[in-house]
């Protein structure tokens, strides 16, 4: 293992001497936790900007830090091209036919050339197939294509679901979510929605707020209905019809309806819900790299999706506990248009909020661009690290200098030296200016482990997605509530034989309620079901828990041998206070099963439900032996595993810092001794060379004198020869001194290598102790006692 594999460090490349145009062998390692202060990558096309971005992502994934990568150009899909075997057959499907033709090769020969190029390139930076395998094992790479079936599909329907209570309680975050959602919808319609002056934005915000305050989910169909018939009559202090007349509201509803009815838009409603937590970790808690490919979208669609994505990320971080370590990364490969210096699109507002607030929650934001003049540098002053590559124009350089000066926040800033350095940057050479470093660092980026095949086509994304075993495209948008309604409706329809235009007459002792329909204007057809609400208390002194839960079940009846089975009931999120006492006008009704029409059935069903809950409903906890801790109540195994990863990363960063502090003095002392020993070798070599030269001159002079003296060797000549002989002895001694000095350097270098190996062994042991990904947790279950289950409501419920 090479010494760039340090715990919590990202291997970016090696230092580069601008003057000598040569890279050194000194590694450039970037502390992952420093990325919580965010980073900016700026460089012209061809500067190696995308390669640096992929390097940062690869290093984060090796460190098991999840990444959401927004890909407007199609380059980031290359992260899925990881070939540990480095065999030509791996490269063959991805090589460019035009490049092969230009090189005068067929595809097989060109693939072999690329395989050798990548093998040699990796080796020159100390990397190999084993490191690529480590990258593959650490995280899954998935390519999402919103509004397209090329990659994994992502549904926007989740964006209209009521935010969790924790977010609704955070007034600022809740308002940001409402405004972002309204702005995103209007952006898709081509309407510029200003939260203050746009009546469309004000109306949609009020509709979303009204529904979400009650915990009600919305979809586009219900939003269209609410636009026409809002559940309120005033906006502010003015009548609704004065602010937004019915005719104009109908026009807005028609625009949204036309969008919903268009065949292309159906693709936006299919696939996995847009959920930040799921984009960052899979069902088992393993880190993910979710590449959000939006190259196929037009500008309005990109802004719509970016707004919803950023709003969801912002909502997600508000629900996370604070941390000083890097929890996740948001990487945007091209910032152009999303954070302009003058205009205020919805994406800019959300990005500025993330740059200001995400640090406290461990989210690192990395923004990359080739258009320096089109960025809001006041906002980017929140970035702690700037990676500057080759720039195209003097105007670009001036804008970057302005941004760097602003990011310095009053600290010493040598503008002249910085300008000279930036002017000398070449391809794949970057200047790193970081608030965490004592001085700027110039470095050349390492070879990427992912094969850089160029922007991915739709067909290539399909191949990658199919090879990853991604789920097949969904047939339509579904949520838990709609699935439950569909299942219950099917069951109920099977058990009902007829519909009536009048409600069945039931004994007054039979409690009955009507579930509100999703649309206020639709004609309702009611089907009977049994609704039960149970309040359950779980208590365990051993595990120090007291948990109260509400279980709401909706189940259907038939007249068969087993009329009631709570095990087949659907879990629903229905507020008992929202139930209606009267049916909607014009509704039709299915027949009521015989047992449901009897008041005596309900106490029996209540007791059966109590028994079923005590037998089947449990609180499940998970125990980690390595961390010596137990999961929180309501925390599933996946979330517990993720929490342990974040907590262990915090401990790891602290422990890693302690290790560095422990070994730093020893390493520094050894390096100083090696430096002095090398100086001694150079000095001894120089003295030895001088002595050799002097001896040769002395002996030569004596012999020459004897020769010129016509063969007569006098006392003086003998003396000179004797002196020369003594000089030769000193030369031999000094030669030995050189040898001994060299041996001293070798011995010190070996001590340094042994110390590095000792440090690496401790680092490896530390890394293994903090890896909770593969740990098998002990499962603990806590059941409720019969006396801890109360049934406040059991009734006949008419569901639309």
Please describe the topology of this protein.
Elements: E1 9-17, E2 22-31, E3 39-42, H1 49-62, E4 67-71, H2 88-91, H3 97-102, H4 107-123, H5 129-138, E5 140-144, E6 154-155, H6 165-168, H7 171-188, H8 199-213, H9 220-228, E7 234-235, E8 238-239, H10 240-243, H11 246-261, E9 272-273, H12 276-280, E10 288-293, H13 299-318, E11 328-332, H14 346-357, E12 363-369, H15 377-380, E13 385-388, H16 394-407, H17 415-423, E14 429-434, E15 441-445, H18 458-467, H19 480-495, E16 499-500, E17 512-514, E18 525-540, E19 545-555, E20 570-571, E21 588-590, H20 601-616, E22 618-624, E23 629-630, H21 637-708, H22 715-769, E24 778-783, E25 789-799
Parallel strand pairs: 3-12, 3-13, 4-10, 4-11, 5-10, 6-9, 11-12, 17-25, 18-21
Antiparallel strand pairs: 1-2, 1-15, 7-8, 13-14, 14-15, 16-21, 18-19, 18-25, 19-20, 22-23, 22-24
Helix pairs in contact: 1-5, 7-8, 7-13, 9-11, 13-14, 21-22
Kindly describe this structure.
This protein has 800 residues and is α/β, with parallel strands linked by helices. The protein has an 11-stranded mixed beta sheet with strand order 2-1-15-14-13-3-12-11-4-10-5. Strands 16, 17, 18, 19, 20, 21 and 25 form a 7-stranded mixed beta sheet that branches. β14 and β15 (441-445) form a beta hairpin. α1 (49-62) crosses α5 (129-138), α7 (171-188) packs across α8 (199-213) and α21 (637-708) packs antiparallel against α22. The longest helix is centred in the last third of the chain and has 72 residues, at 637-708. Mean pLDDT is 84; it is low at 472-497.
